[in-house]
Design a protein that fits this description.
With 386 residues, this protein is of the alpha+beta class. Strands 1-2-13-10 form a four-stranded mixed sheet, sandwiched between helices. A three-stranded antiparallel sheet has the order 3-6-7, covered by helices on one side. α1 packs antiparallel against α2, α7 crosses α9 and α8 crosses α9. The longest helix is centred in the C-terminal third of the chain and has 20 residues. It is globular. The N terminus is likely disordered. It binds arginine. Arginine binds next to β14 and α7.
Length: 386
């Protein structure tokens, strides 16, 4: 296989050249040895890893190291309220795949397994790490399931404005969505350095889409909103034991507010609060009627009710906050400090009703972890804000 160094490799994200960081590797091995169920000869393993790194610039993790490391990366992540479940993460090892078509097929397997017919399971699939002179595969999608943002001639966007740039790129690679709509699932864009980008369609049934209905307000149901069943973040790199995995998509289940109080509501996303307020017959003549607040509550209630009706796992923000509390207690019992980024774990709706709001957390980012990696032209999200 030909190996090309794309212009973007290296430099970005502080990952210089695919050379494994021996100090990070050793630190991780000590942690693994301390915490792992089955002890192993630590000094031997450290010596072997150091030797491999000095000889080849990198080393190969054992399956057990990868599995434990991915779980701890979740535990260490400061921007996740769902960490109570970190031990249950299912880790799929796809490090051997280099062919974009095989990677695409494996991603569809990931979606099938994680979606689990609606009983969403936390799943991560780890593709090849960067190696010296050979960066690993990468996914251009921010999540494996995401809706397109079609640019209109007048500069507005039909669908999700956050994916407008990705939608452009998918079209350039030959993707044809048919007549554009607000909820068109984007194809997967798999980038293997040295090979042309590959576009893989996602069969609609894998997305477990949920039509958003309101139990008491048919006018809200009539808006025809929908959302896909579960998020699978696919643009963060897993930094684990001195290695960098650029493609390591991970699935969790949704908190209702992510959809009802952000994706469908944010001004720079679907911006639906005015439409929802109209559907609910709210008085929008003044900010003081709190029509935005009322619309947020009813939209989020509709999301929660609809997912329950559809049999797709989802948690409300109050329960998520309680779960984070339980996680906090468990971590303290284990003698560990909880690391969290307050602005990211506090819900965007009724924040002060949750215990999280009244706490302060240490937001130090430990390794292993999931680290944001940006690429020019992504157009997804605002780095640094929830
Ligand atoms: N906030 C993102 C979204 O609304 C998903 C991020 C991951 N969320 C999760 N519950 N695991 O699509």
């Amino acid at each position: 296989m030909t190996v090309n160094q794309p212009a973007s490799a290296g430099a970005v994200d502080g990952v210089a050249d695919g050379v494994a960081d021996a100090a990070e590797a050793v630190e991780f091995l000590r942690l693994f040895h301390r915490e792992a169920g089955q002890p192993f000869p630590l000094a031997d393993r450290i010596a072997r890893v150091r030797r491999q790194i000095s000889r080849t610039g990198t080393y190969r993790q054992t399956a057990a190291e990868l599995t434990f490391g991915a779980k701890v990366a979740w535990r260490n992540h400061t921007r996740c309220v769902g960490k109570l479940y970190w031990r249950t993460l299912v880790v799929r090892d796809a490090r051997h795949l280099q062919d974009p078509a095989e990677i695409g097929a494996d991603l569809l397997d990931h979606l099938r397994l994680a979606g689990n017919g609606g009983r969403i399971e936390p799943v991560i699939t780890v593709f090849a790490a960067d190696e010296p002179g050979r960066p690993g595969p990468r996914l251009a999608n921010p999540q494996l399931l995401r809706y397109a943002g079609h640019r209109r001639p007048d500069g507005t966007v039909l669908g999700d404005p956050a994916t407008a740039a990705l939608t452009d790129r998918a079209r350039a690679l030959g993707w044809d969505p048919g007549p554009p709509g607000p909820f068109d699932l984007l194809p997967l864009l798999v980038d293997v350095p040295g090979q042309p980008g590959r576009c893989v369609d996602v069969p609609r049934e894998l997305a477990l889409e949920v039509p958003i209905r309101h139990p008491a307000h048919p006018e809200l149901t009539a808006l025809g909103l929908r959302w896909y069943g579960f998020p699978t973040v696919s643009d963060m790199q897993l930094q684990l034991a001195g290695l960098t995995y650029r493609a390591a998509p991970f699935t969790g289940w949704y908190v209702g507010t992510e959809i009802g109080a952000r994706n469908l509501a944010d001004r720079d996303r679907y911006d639906l609060l005015p439409a929802v307020a109209a559907a609910l017959g709210l008085d929008t003549s003044s900010e003081r009627t709190l029509w935005k607040d009322r619309a947020l509550v009813e939209l989020t209630a509709a999301v929660l009710w609809s997912y329950r009706q559809a049999g797709v796992r989802m948690v409300d923000h109050h329960t998520a906050s309680d779960q984070f509390d339980r996680y906090t207690q468990a971590e303290r019992r284990a003698g560990r400090t909880v690391h969290a980024d307050w602005a990211w774990i506090v819900p965007p709706l009724s924040p002060a009703t949750t215990a999280l709001y009244h706490q302060r957390y240490d937001d130090t980012v430990l390794l292993p972890n999931f680290v944001r990696q940006t690429r020019p032209g992504d157009g997804d999200g605002r780095p640094g804000s929830p």
